[in-house]
Design goal:
490 residues; alpha/beta; Double Stranded RNA Binding Domain; pyruvate-formate lyase- activating enzyme; nine-stranded mixed β-sheet; 43% helix
Length: 490
């Protein structure tokens, strides 16, 4: 598809809007008009004293256009021009494709954070009106924003200037899911390097703890993710968790989470290790309770395995369990998703995270045409709305929300929890509340100063074999943490 931008420099913004409707379309940006059968034209035109935002969409020879005047009363005319041009392009797609994304033209990762900022700057009424009239966000998503902001603000208020969280990366899984884009290795391929990885990870944990102690930082939350941490053996898990407990001051920790993740990696010995090392919150993630869908996405466990793992964790005293679900999985249906959620509610977890499928691989659009793409997005939207209604009816309420690129239907990921069981780390990492010190392959340390203005990222090597071979360099980068704090906190 050709994208013809004329009279403005909003190339990136207009391309992002096209991807709300055509997420995998190859786009060529031009600055002259063309007459292709698949083409978008976005113009800012001067007509007498007015500036006109004009958009035209042509798909397979069918065309529609839309235009409006730029509101000259708006102080930031450049931003208003971008928004107005985006709205006209949005209207063109809506008319031609018969589909209206619920988030309107809003494409950012953290809509709740943006809404909160508008509320703080201009007041709640202004923020609500802006989201509805300028971003074209529908009422349901606006309500979700408001509830998420309330939950996030309560959690953010627990953090202080010297707070930090610790992230530990275990980038291994029993098998790779078909939808996965994380840096993770199947246990079959990575088995031989895991012992060395664990040994070096423990050394990095020890070095990081020394830095945190010297800077007088207060540990709020610990999160071990991946991958699937419980892919490690019970002995290896104990080694890593023990390194955390022995080296960090755990007396201030509000939450210690381990992603137990795949039900087929959970057994009595591993749960006992988690319990003995003070883990207070775990995730058991079925994604779906439909066995045929599990098989389709490359998971080796069954729905009954999920039930068995959950009940075993309960018997062993875990009273804060999260479960992840995905709306829009290949071969899943709305009725099947409803059954999944109803089965999860029978287990009565403390929190449920509902993800919309992020389409990292071939799009349905590319294989089945626009109709199938719209059908998939509509089905996923129904799943997401049903989950919200069902969970809220069970007093499991939204407390944080974020979005990913190329998510089906431009939908969102939402964390729901019973009161008092919200996942604190989830909010801290998405809100960028405070520093995150991170250890392991693909881990990213994110340093935050107390003015909320300066953020520095320190990247570890992505893959486990790179982590092992480049460990000396990873350790040398740790000096940047002290340098950041010396510059911004003294």
């Amino acid at each position: 598809m050709k994208l013809c931008n004329i009279g403005h420099t909003f190339d990136y913004e207009m391309e992002k809007l096209i991807r709300l409707f055509l997420p995998f379309e190859k786009i060529e940006v031009l600055h002259t008009e063309c007459g292709d059968d698949n083409c978008v034209v976005c113009k800012l035109l001067q007509q007498d004293d007015d500036v006109i935002a004009y958009a035209k969409l042509t798909l397979e020879g069918n065309s529609v256009d839309s235009q409006s005047k730029i509101d000259k009363a708006i102080t930031d005319t450049r931003k208003e021009s971008q928004h107005e041009l985006g709205r006209q392009l949005f209207f063109c797609f809506e008319k031609l494709m018969g589909y209206r994304p619920d988030w309107g033209i809003l494409t950012g990762v953290r809509p709740a954070k943006l809404f909160s900022r508008y509320c703080n700057q201009y007041g709640n009424d202004y923020a609500e009106n802006f989201f509805k009239t300028k971003f074209l966000v529908n009422e349901s998503k606006l309500d979700l924003c408001k509830m998420s902001v309330k939950g996030e603000e309560e959690i953010v208020s627990l953090s202080s200037d010297n707070s930090f969280s610790l992230y530990i990366s275990i980038p291994f899984c029993p098998s790779r899911c078909s939808y996965c884009s994380f840096v993770s290795h199947s246990i079959e391929k990575a088995h031989d390097i895991i012992p060395q990885y664990v040994e070096l990870l423990c050394r990095e944990i020890e070095a990081t703890a020394v830095i945190a102690k010297n800077l007088n930082l207060k540990l709020e939350t610990v999160y071990m993710g991946g991958g699937t941490p419980t892919t490690l053996s019970a002995q290896q898990l104990n080694r890593v968790l023990g390194a955390i407990r022995q080296n960090f001051d755990m007396s201030t920790v509000r939450e210690f989470t381990v992603e137990a993740g795949r039900p087929d990696t959970i057994d009595y010995d591993k749960l006992l290790v988690l319990k003995q090392n003070g883990v207070s919150r775990i995730s058991i993630n079925p994604q779906t309770m439909n066995d045929s869908v599990l098989q389709c996405i490359g998971r080796k466990h069954t729905a009954s395995d999920t039930v068995v793992a959950f009940k075993l964790a309960r018997e062993m005293g875990f009273n804060n369990i999260n479960m992840d679900l995905i709306a829009g999985l290949p071969s899943d249906t709305f009725e099947s998703f409803k059954n999944t959620l109803n089965e999860i509610l029978k287990l009565d977890p403390e929190s449920v995270t509902v993800h919309a499928l992020s389409m990292k691989r071939a799009s349905t659009l590319n294989t089945n045409g626009q109709h199938e793409q719209i059908k998939l997005e509509s089905e996923a939207a129904k799943m997401v709305e049903f989950s919200r209604d069902a969970l809220q009816s069970s007093e499991i309420l939204p407390y944080y929300m974020y979005r990913q690129s190329k998510t089906v239907g431009n939908l969102e990921n939402v964390g729901y929890a019973k009161k008092g069981f919200e996942g604190l780390y989830n909010v801290y990492i998405m809100d960028e509340t405070h520093t995150i010190l991170a250890c392991g392959a693909s881990a990213v340390t994110k340093l935050k100063d107390n003015t909320q203005k300066n953020i520095k990222r320190i990247f570890n090597y992505k893959y486990p074999y790179e982590y092992i071979s480049g460990f000396k360099e990873i350790m040398s980068r740790k000096t940047e943490i002290g340098e950041f704090y010396d510059k911004h906190f003294k």
